[in-house]
TrEMBL record, chains A, B:
An annotated GO BP: NADPH regeneration
GO-annotated cellular components: plasma membrane
NAD among keywords: yes
Pfam families per UniProt: AlaDh_PNT_C (PF01262), AlaDh_PNT_N (PF05222)
Reactions that this protein is recorded to catalyse: NAD(+) + NADPH + H(+)(in) = NADH + NADP(+) + H(+)(out)
Name listed for the protein in its UniProt record: NAD(P) transhydrogenase subunit alpha part 1
Species, as recorded: Allochromatium humboldtianum
Biological classification of the source: Bacteria, Pseudomonadati, Pseudomonadota, Gammaproteobacteria, Chromatiales
Molecular function in Gene Ontology: NADP binding; oxidoreductase activity; proton-translocating NAD(P)+ transhydrogenase activity
Amino acid sequence: MKIGIPLETRPGETRVASTPDVVKKLVGQGFEVVIETGAGVRAGYPDADYEAAGARLSDRAGAYDVDLLLKVRRPDEADVEAMRAGGLYIGLLESCGEDAILPSLLAKGMRVLALERMPRTSRAQSMDVLSSQSNIAGYRAVIEAAARYGRFLPMMMTSAGSAKPARVVVLGAGVAGLQAIATARRLGADVYAYDVRPETREQILSLGAKPIDLDLGESGAGEGGYAKELSDEAKARQQAALADELAKAHVIVTTALIPCRRAPVLVTEDVVQRMRHGSVIVDLAAASGGNCPLTVADEIVERHGVTLVGLTNFPALVPADASAFYARNLLNLIEIMFERGESGPQLKDLSADDITAAMLVQAAS
Amino acid sequence: MKIGIPLETRPGETRVASTPDVVKKLVGQGFEVVIETGAGVRAGYPDADYEAAGARLSDRAGAYDVDLLLKVRRPDEADVEAMRAGGLYIGLLESCGEDAILPSLLAKGMRVLALERMPRTSRAQSMDVLSSQSNIAGYRAVIEAAARYGRFLPMMMTSAGSAKPARVVVLGAGVAGLQAIATARRLGADVYAYDVRPETREQILSLGAKPIDLDLGESGAGEGGYAKELSDEAKARQQAALADELAKAHVIVTTALIPCRRAPVLVTEDVVQRMRHGSVIVDLAAASGGNCPLTVADEIVERHGVTLVGLTNFPALVPADASAFYARNLLNLIEIMFERGESGPQLKDLSADDITAAMLVQAAS
């Protein structure tokens, strides 16, 4: 059973789907691992480390011509072209509804395990790349804010007087939001947080932040622990009630995403205008239209004296750890997909396990 | 008594010598304050705030044609040209030994208070800009390291496994070093620190870091709490003994400066080669030749897989708080320089106070 790990080719992508540590485990389990030359270099994993772990270095064609392809980012047509017909693909598809690449994959007889379809069960948690990568995004968002904010995050008491701690507001208390709260608290900021799901209140408090309570007349708790979309009326109430809290913030980290929908507007232009000159907004929803309408995806812009960070790939800024977590997620997944056979690992029936069944995208679906 | 605050014109400088808060106090004490249009904008202080504080906006010529000029960075010939003859200058001179600008200043009859000559006494501490700005540099250096390091600084326990905390080594436990230690500790890193002055050991421990003990055969404690230069023999012993500790580090922040000397080499090329791929060195001595010979002043370079940050003006990256501290330092200094008179503040005899006497650079000296 041959596993391939290609170099990710999306602009700005620095991660790699597996690391030398994990490759060593896979080889130990009887897999043959082929890695494209230079695939891990940007993440801090040199080719020599993969070789030492038992992988074989190869050109691009060799890394794609495998039984099981491990990818981070969505493949393009050229990637599909290079795949071995009838193989297995594990990676993010990054698609909602109509998708040009999926028919190409299926036409080639590929069986696709789409990582964004991972069920949100406790058994699946150790394989959930959305969760592991969001965690990293939440950490890195606060580091980015600290690097772009013209003041200290912590309170500073010096002989030249003291500086008050920054007031940080985190919108959305999912995995990314909770890690953003934790990181901003570590740095000594005064942290406030808001989420439409009332059950997040206790988690916010447990991290030392103050929950912002708004009365919307309805709950935003949706299926599977995700947020659902609010009614228009509730959205308007939410914006108005949030505005005063947000205008007082010096750093805002927004993480409000609804799967396969445009991100909700939580930070209006009016709020940006009211914020203090030099404040920073890190909009983790930039790729989905942004939680602030002034955010520009993949850019850092200044509007009304406020810096808006619209970077869309924060995990790629922490590529060593992001790849390590991603690789371990995939290792955990692979371990439930295969059983030990005499001639090496044998693929189990993917439709028989609720995790792989949920992720599997087949021609019929 | 007219005070002038010009726009700083050095490339990359974003600070301003006074802030609206401090201007308000100066105006309250009877000073007339003139500020160059846009002087505070890059630091997050709009012109309107200075006007509201009682300052008068002016062009460059007006901000220089004053009794008392408040500057951040060393003036150039054009600045001296614009100064009112016989005026007072407060600012950094940034010069050692021979200096072309000082004769120009003195030829114009300026009395110069050089902020780097501030005595290191407890009474002077609230006026010490070297200290307040070093504090900021130490904080910002660690934020920069976190933003350039491809992994987490804190330990992370996730369902995809855990990431160990980064191993951070801080060289030099002066004001910058101690703040770097504190910030790295806040972020959850495992912090080690080294200083030639044995008396810093307790401060290092009190911040939760581990002191690195080396036997050099002599102490590096110099006059006034600064470090002195070691003998060549002791330097060689220091490098060798440090090398093993440094090679294990993932982030190094170096702060070893000796006034008016080339910075000592503490991180050799051999150490950089031994460090893990993706590690980061922030060299706060970059402007004085660097504590690492591979550092390039004002640049961020990669050598042997390690990122070397050679930025030379970290306070300018936190311009709002840096300017606020600087402005308060200057306010505290001005308060000992003047006494209340019937027609406004009256300059006292600068040679009569040990602080101003130490700072004063006069034609005779």
